[in-house]
Specification:
This protein is an alpha/beta fold and about 230 residues long. It is built from eight helices and eight strands, in the order βαβαβββββαβααααα. Strand 5 and strand 6 form a beta hairpin. It starts with a strand and ends with a helix.
Length: about 230
């Protein structure tokens, strides 16, 4: 019912994951190589014609029984919907890296000044209980570190709207301590620990927090610490 858009930048597994998505859902579109996470999602929304838009990240491996067939009730057409995803490093299951369903017009008009893109679109949020994908971000040293750094910066800075502090702190602890034995797990832990420190020190500093959406800055940060 709603357009599906796959968003990629330079992720090693992007082509493979997009091919798998297209095999199951041939009408899926792709946005590739757009600088800036907010800008990539705005371009994705502009490619679509339905009032809601499915967003699939480049590292998402869709589970077999997820079919993009959810219909949004009329009174929730202004809500951001986020499905749950399984983390391959620490086995956390929550909205990080999950499939999203965004209001198209609100996405085009989103507030690009906020560090967290998802909460830039609408004040109305609906967490969906179903696991839609594995967020397989651990495809290389930098990719793994970057993903952990960005998420833990957001968790530690408390920048995500409507987050529950105890739940956030538990997730932050798990990111920093669990999964060293998994593929690229050591880089996930390093990125999580560096992100936690950066998020804590940058709490309330919007300009500093916005840097986590700049992949060139992240690469420099990675090279400094690894």
């Amino acid at each position: 019912m709603y357009d599906i858009v796959f968003i990629s930048y330079n992720e090693p597994s992007a082509d493979e994951n997009y091919a798998a998505l297209k095999n199951r859902f041939p009408t899926a579109k792709r946005v590739h190589g757009v600088t800036g996470i907010h800008q990539a999602h705005i371009k994705a929304a502009k490619k679509c014609f339905t009032n809601m838009v499915w967003i699939v990240d480049a590292d998402a491996i869709i589970v077999d029984d997820f079919n993009f067939n959810y219909t949004v009730p009329n009174h929730q057409l202004d809500h951001v919907h986020v499905w749950r995803s399984q983390n391959p490093i620490n086995d956390l299951v929550y909205g990080y890296g999950g499939i999203k369903l965004f209001p198209r017009k609100l996405t085009v008009d989103m507030d690009i000044s906020k560090p967290d893109m998802t909460t830039s679109i609408s004040t109305k949020f609906k967490a969906m209980p179903e696991v839609a994908n594995i967020t397989a971000f651990n495809t290389g040293e930098f990719e793994t570190w970057k993903s952990a750094f960005r998420e833990c910066t957001k968790l530690a800075s408390k920048v995500i709207d409507r987050q529950k502090n105890e739940e956030t702190d538990n997730r932050l602890h798990t990111w920093q301590t669990v999964g060293k034995d998994r593929p690229y797990g050591e880089f996930a832990l390093r990125g999580a620990q560096a992100g936690s420190a950066y998020g804590t020190s940058s709490r309330g500093d919007v300009e500093a927090l916005k840097k986590i959406n700049n992949f060139e800055w992240l690469k420099e940060k990675f090279n400094e610490t690894n």
